[in-house]
Amino acid sequence: MKERGWGELKFKKMTKFDLAKSMFSLIEAYEKAGNKTMTTEAFLLWLNGNAIDAGKTAAANLNKAESNAFSEWRISYFVWLMSKYAKTYVKKALQNSPLIGLDDFGFLISLCYEGSKTKTELIQQNIMEVSSGMEIIKRLEKKKLIKSFRDEKDKRAIRLAATLKGQTVLAEAMKEMYKASNIIAGDLNDNERVQLLSILNKLHLFHNPIFLNESKTELEEIQVKYLSVDS
């Protein structure tokens, strides 16, 4: 059985004062190491990089579950930061394109490289809410980058495909998107890139069925079902 995740933890008997002391010891170690940038981001980066052993010593005062919870929060935080960085680079890449952002790009590249799809297939593949996905489809159709047509096998179904104009727009956008992708990958070496791809793919395979099947499920139920956390 896996341990409880963040929000389901049974903490040791620890007062707010005890917890504050532990955090103050980390902050003190951060300052003694010569760090003068007093921001949350800089402090978390210092912890993540294990710059000094003092952080580990202070963290030892927390039980294993508490340490896991803090690690999980840091993972969430850095994933969120990466999404912000990526959004900034993509905005630059598409500044002269009819495509507004990464969602437009994702919808169009899916149709160009994978062929026609139903609206539901396209929206789900790009991890979008139905209402937001429909707005993107309408926008791309209005710009004549994609077209809709009846499914030959199921006349009730509407399929989408990229137009010749859409393929041309994508080809132009790809030139700048390659630059953005290169910057997003940063200075990771080949081994680090392979490792990161493997980890990200594992997380994708974990989260995708939750997104597709658990839209109305409470977080506690998702923890029990997918992480073997006791209810």
Summarize the structure in short.
The chain has 231 residues and is mainly α. The chain contains ten helices and three strands; from the N terminus they run αααααβααββααα. It has a three-stranded antiparallel beta sheet.
Strand content: 5-15%
Content-based structural category: mainly alpha
**What is the residue-mean pLDDT, rounded to a whole number?**
84
List low-pLDDT spans. 1-12
Name the shape in a single word.
Answer: globular
Largest sheet: 3 strands, antiparallel
Based on CA atoms alone, the radius of gyration comes out at 23 Å
Strand order of the largest sheet: 1-3-2
Model description:
The chain is mainly alpha-helical. Among the domains are: 93 residues, no CATH class; 64 residues, Orthogonal Bundle (Arc Repressor Mutant, subunit A). The longest helix is centred in the middle third of the chain and has 30 residues. The two termini are 12 Å apart. It has a three-stranded antiparallel beta sheet. Strand 2 and strand 3 form a beta hairpin. It is built from ten helices and three strands. Helix 4 packs across helix 8, helix 5 packs across helix 8 and helix 6 packs across helix 7.
